[in-house]
Amino acid sequence: MQSIKRNWKGKSASLPREYQVGQAHKFLKLLRLSGFTPMAVAMFVLGTALSFTAPYVSLYGVNHAHMSPGHLGFFMTMMAVSGVAISRYLGKRSDAAPNRRPYVLVANFAAVIGYGGLGLTSNYWIIMILGCVFLGIAAAILPQMFAFSKTALTFSDDEQEDLGMAGLRTLVSIAWVFGPSIGAILLSLLDFDGLFGIAAGCFLLAGLLVLRVKAPAVPHHTVRTQPAAPLDSGMVELTMPDCATPCTDGAPRRAAPAVASRASTATLAQSASRAAVAAPKAAHAGAVPSKEAAAAAVPTKDAGTAASPRKPFDMTIMLAFTAFTLIGVSGAALMIALPIYMVNVLHGNSHQVAMMFGWGALLEVPIMLGFGLSSKRLPKSKLIAAGALIHVVYFVSILFADSAEHLVPLQAANAFVVSVFSCLGMQYFQELMPGEPGAATTLFFNTNRVGAIVAGVLTGWIAGLFGYWQVFVMCACLSGIAFVMLVYLARAEGRVRGKAGKAKLAS
């Protein structure tokens, strides 16, 4: 008995070491993945460029171009409108194209022209043209980079893919740890023309690094999937093999298993099983699945669900999009108002602005890595709802801060919110829209873009009439509304999972 206890204790004591070795092996295997290293460096450089520009655009408008709050709000709104329209168009085109790389390069080179031009002028209407045209195209950089990574990198399984995508997102956050501080130094030494010029060079370098990532031709034989139904309807959601990944480049590609995640009856589960047998064979051959496989993948009316193509916005996606957009409004208004509030109201300086953004980004790194390592086991919908609640607390705390120094530690709360919505939120939308990584990723990023549209108008209007303090009151209210919507979605998802569990037991 004592021997058994000693062996058990010895084994349990070695578990942490084994776990650490296992996690290190996962990262090393990821680094050896073809194309991952240049893609990772490109993401880091891109994050650096964004950290040089995003915190200081509003200060550029007020202090360099001498915009009023109304003019600044109109500029930010029009830039966001063009960004949403152009990035959505490019997202659809890239999903239908054999190679996403040209779209990534166009977005990067547009950023080079846009930010390079901003540094050379203070004319309001020239700034509007640069913002609406070139920076509107540049708005597609992040969604296109992530979609390109998802399809171009040959991940071995879903776990490695989740870790890889979280790692790429984390590199963007790491760049934000020191980027705003370096940006503040460059701003004090070189003014806005030097700051934006160096940022343009970073965008150019990121585009050149993307050229080093091999992107094999993609045969477009994508199995269309059943819609993500309203959560209370009990409609089955099938995730079919991802035939939009390369299957003919000589290396065998994994096919994601068919998953009946919201089965309402045993008959639907059996239909999904037949589809899982038939479809991978067709995916491996690079051909369109047979009629039998397609028929098995679509629930019939006899099985309890009408077979109809997925609507662009069903109720689930609409609610999720609206809630994420409200959080996007709050986040965009924060980026516009907080630097001005710190400098002009709380009498801080650009170095304190940089410290605030850098501290928040530093805290995001371990949180995002943790999400990447355990994303399959995390309750995404509950964590996202919790993030919205913490956002409310964060904005209320800003209202009671009476100095710029008090705002810096508050970024711990904002870091959690950013990590949850950026890391888990992207996966959340991709699960709602299986088989459409470009459209899903673009839709997710467009919640921020639409949020920026609304934020530009509201921030300019509220700040012009009442002041920047009242902008944060608005942000707290909008985050509260988003919290209520996300709680509803999380509870509805729980009810659906409960029904699916009962159906599985009944079968």
Automatic annotation (TrEMBL):
Keywords: Cell membrane, Membrane, Sugar transport, Transmembrane, Transmembrane helix, Transport. Gene3D superfamilies: MFS general substrate transporter like domains (1.20.1250.20). One of its GO terms (cellular component) is plasma membrane. Residues 316-507 form the Major facilitator superfamily (MFS) profile domain. One of its GO terms (molecular function) is transmembrane transporter activity. InterPro entries: MFS, MFS_dom, MFS_trans_sf. Pfam families: MFS_1 (PF07690). Belongs to the major facilitator superfamily. Set transporter family. This is MFS transporter. It comes from Pararobbsia silviterrae.
